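Submission checklist for the structure archive. All mandatory fields must be present; incomplete records are returned to the submitter.

[x] Identifier: Embryonal stem cell-specific gene 1 protein
[x] Organism: Chrysochloris asiatica
[x] Residue count: 120
[x] Sequence attached
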Amino acid sequence: MGARREQNDIPPWVKSPEDLKDPEVFQIPTGLLATVFGPNGSRIPYLEQVSKTMLELKILESSNFTEVVIYGSYLYKLRAKWMLQSLAEWHRQRQERGMLRLEEAMNALELDLGFSEASS
């Protein structure tokens, strides 16, 4: 997902070299990659087209995070960063709510699979 692009692969809305300078960078939990960017990054072309940016993903070896690098004009980079961070946070909260519901259902059935801290 994070291979560097050749000059021919740069989307037409990204004006090189000025839009390739000073990218916006943020980190996303690696576990959320598929939900935000699709399986094997299949949603990246759509996200790039909608945001008028170019995205590059760099998996960080020493952590559970992936670096998202956003290239484009200043306002488009900021908008894309906000959009992707919001999407990642929404998915994170959705997963958290699902785990809480699962724990509540298991507690209602009096099952304990080690999710709660009070298992003694």
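[x] Structure attached
Curator remark: The CA atoms of residues 54 and 102 lie 38 Å apart. DSSP finds three helices and three strands in the chain.
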